[in-house]
Specification:
By secondary structure, the protein is an alpha+beta fold. It has 2 helices and 5 strands, in the order ββββαβα. It has one domain: 3-Layer(aba) Sandwich (Aminopeptidase), CATH 3.40.630.30.
């Protein structure tokens, strides 16, 4: 399974294409350094394989490298950050 995370800045999207299916994490840049992570989606047949976690991790590393703060509108992203305290300082208004 090729599960390489790709990033489209233009579409504000991190994604993984597996076969003819796509898992994705959508975000919106509120400002130059505030990233609102809107949602994650993984097709039913690909769930339970850690794909959403890979998308979130890649997104958070990108945000950190670019000195962005995170608004976790997606509950999965919020839960992920709470389970990985190394990212908690990136939360806006925490």
């Amino acid at each position: 399974m090729n599960d390489e995370v790709k990033h489209s800045k233009e579409k504000q999207l991190f994604f993984i294409d597996i076969g003819n299916q796509r898992a994705e994490l959508k975000y919106f840049m509120e400002t130059e350094n505030v990233m609102n992570v809107m949602n994650t989606y993984v097709p039913d047949s690909l769930r339970g394989k850690g794909i959403a976690g890979k998308l979130v991790e890649e997104c958070l590393h990108y945000a950190k490298e670019n000195s962005c703060r995170i608004i976790p509108s997606c509950s999965y992203v919020y839960s992920y950050i709470k389970k990985h305290p190394e990212f908690e300082a990136m939360l806006l208004n925490e």
